Amino acid sequence: PYNVPFPGPDVNPFYLQHKTITATALPGQTINYSVQYVSPANKPPTKAQVLIDMVPQNLTSSGGTNYTKGVTYTYSTNTLSVGEHTFRFRFDDGSGIVTYNGSTEPSITPVVLSKSSVSPAAGTSSTPFTFSTTYADAANQAPAQAQLFVDNTAYPMSYVSGSNNTGALYQKTMTLPTGKHSFFFVFSDSVSSWADPFAPSVYAGPGVGVNTSAVRSGTLITSSDEEDPGFPVDTNL
Length: 237
Hints:
Blueprint: E1 15-21, E2 24-25, E3 31-38, E4 47-52, E5 55-58, E6 60-61, E7 71-77, E8 83-84, E9 87-92, E10 97-103, E11 107-108, E12 111-119, E13 122-123, E14 129-137, E15 145-150, E16 153-156, E17 158-163, E18 167-174, E19 182-188, E20 193-196, E21 202-204, E22 207-208, E23 220-221
Parallel strand pairs: 2-11, 13-22
Antiparallel strand pairs: 1-3, 3-7, 4-5, 4-9, 6-7, 8-11, 9-10, 12-14, 14-18, 15-16, 15-19, 17-18, 19-20, 19-21, 21-23
């Protein structure tokens, strides 16, 4: 019917910004949750929590009382089990609890890939491009597979430096034809495998061609819109 009401936007006396969460980690590594609380009325929160797998944990102020400009609240833990976890932030300034949408983070896994990149970000068909990623394995195992995929074609990567349990650098250098490109990494040990980024996402770059613009490091090409921006869009609990 034409007169069915639609829910409007949530209007709250405070808001959150600058959300940062450790996205992936090995078992036992520290996971950091951080968010900035802003109150135009300069009211401190009476409740500041992060819900990890729906279990509330109290956030700690990093200091300061200028809530108009924003005060950062944090929580850290190193006891999350292997697997995917969820988080949501929950705040109250005395006027009522507001729970903010979160996402499925972090992922605790025996294998982690980090610091993935390509250098340079742009060049010509004669430019050597170096693809890099850092592999870490909780069991200190070397990867049984270390592959780079450029435009869905697999290339073996070579060990450069570092240790398997704290981070080993792997690289592959090659030239590429003129055009736009994409890439991702897949590593595995005897029991686990890991991709960076997760499918269906891939990294964009490098740009190859005369006067081609550089692709910003970490730019993703994805068909998924699962990432939540972290703004207050959910209900009170």
